[in-house]
Amino acid sequence: MTTPLRDPDPPPRPLVQRVGAILWPSFFAAGVANAVFFAALDPLDLASISFPGHEISRELGYTIGFFTFWACTAFSSLFTWLLLRPASRFNPRRGD
Question: Where are the domains of the chain?
Answer without folding.
Answer: 22-84
